[in-house]
Structures are given as C-alpha cells and as structure tokens.
Amino acid sequence: MIDRPNKDILKAVRAEQGLTQQEAAARAMISTRSWIKYESGERNMMPAPWVLFQLRSNMIKIEDI
Length: 65
Prior knowledge:
Layout: H1 7-17, H2 21-28, H3 32-40, H4 47-56
C-alpha cells in the first residue's frame, strides 16, 4: 500500500477509475482545488485522504489498513 501517492500515481488511478478531478476529490472528501494541487505536484497528499479515496474506490478493504 502506498502511504503518500505522487502526482503520477494520482493521475493514473483517477484515469483507471474513469473519474473527473471533482469526482476523485469527493471520494477523498477533499476540495477539488486540493486534488488539483496534489495531482499537479504543487502539494503532497497526506495519507488519510489517500486511504479514504482507496476505500471509497474499492481499491482496498478496511482490513488492509
């Protein structure tokens, strides 16, 4: 499991899931603006929203945490 995804991972996962930036942000329960900053590499995503995104995208199970 990746604790802190880089911008390339975020873009790839969002594309695999077929999500817009707004939809991805909603899954992570963060603002769209924050997602855009993470995906552009301007900021690094913290572990909590990344784990939440993965859970809500059925990429991991709660037992995996």
